[in-house]
């Protein structure tokens, strides 16, 4: 029979046979513990850095500032070393993400997650047992390596394991577990803050539990069929594909994966491929989504929520309890995104989130500008409570939009040949700007005071404009059809597809 020539970019991806199996759900939950590690660290940092025992031991200058009756309300915690304790993790994760990209391609998603858990366990041991600031920072760097490896592997694992009909919902499990991790951390901080003088050690040590669960759980789960076939383990790949889909006839999906792997093998340098114009649309969008995600101000609020609530007049315990409330809102709002993302679409959620976050940031800024003076007064109980409500409204808007979709969209828009490399840029961009915000927030709060919330609100306007004009809808679009159905149809990105050397390869069938 004569070979048939098929241009990959022009073919339609069929609806593949398969069920939503219990095994896939179990694999997704175990993998999502990588998100739990990340979330726990986000939540635990702010609580620990507001504990007097921790500050007195490692940051005595900050402790003295905090106890000073006339200290500037906005500058109680302004200390570069304190910010470095929080932010050095993200600088380490940035560096690790590029190494993780190579490991993910060569060793697979499963082994990359195992390496992540070992790094994270090591970091938890070092930080909880820290006797000086250097040991703390060193431990945080190991935690950062774990975050970099986990954030590289887990979203790719989830996208490749999921049936296309629930790809969005299953991928958002990663973000859902991040929010659960933040909530658990806030609860732990609330209780350990009363354990003197070592409550902070308990908080930091518990970070090892989700890492241990990921390490042990990853022994039980399988590698993704895509990763197995990509690494020439074809027979094992098709066996796993039958297992996760719950049917024997997986020929169509197997052929699609095999074809994508053949194309990927022809690309010797995926990072160089990313620099070509036809790779620019998913790359630019992936990087911009990560930058915008951080400039919503979410991590400034989640890192330093107890600090922020103390700034507006809550005591230590009340501040930690308020963080628990925002953590609960974060979790339940992310569940909303799980249900809506594959029905209302990505763009709608992002735009609605922008409106909600802008309004809440603007109102918080107005209240603090009018009522919280730099020296001598706190907000009234009613005003402070309203600030907490507005923070919850902000967290809601983020949790069902820019939080989960910042990870989902990059994981589904890159073709296999540049998927791991492209996602490495997304992860590293996220970590870089998380580092920038974490390192700068307390200094910005001190200098800009209430205006910092207007600063973030301005960025949200930019995000909304970007989404409206430059972000195409990817809901329901098969990964193999992104070029034809998304990029070539877009008013702006189509100009980068003129030569289309991304999908001009031929397939012999």
UniProtKB/TrEMBL annotation:
Major place of residence: membrane
Decide whether keyword Transmembrane is in the record: yes
Instruction: Say if the entry is tagged with keyword Transcription regulation.
Output: no
Location of the Major facilitator superfamily (MFS) profile domain: 27-475
For this UniProt record, the keywords arranged alphabetically read as follows: Membrane, Sugar transport, Symport, Transmembrane, Transmembrane helix, Transport
Which NCBIfam families is this protein grouped with?
A: SP (TIGR00879)
- Family assignment? Belongs to the major facilitator superfamily. Sugar transporter (TC 2.A.1.1) family.
Protein name, as recorded: Major facilitator superfamily (MFS) profile domain-containing protein
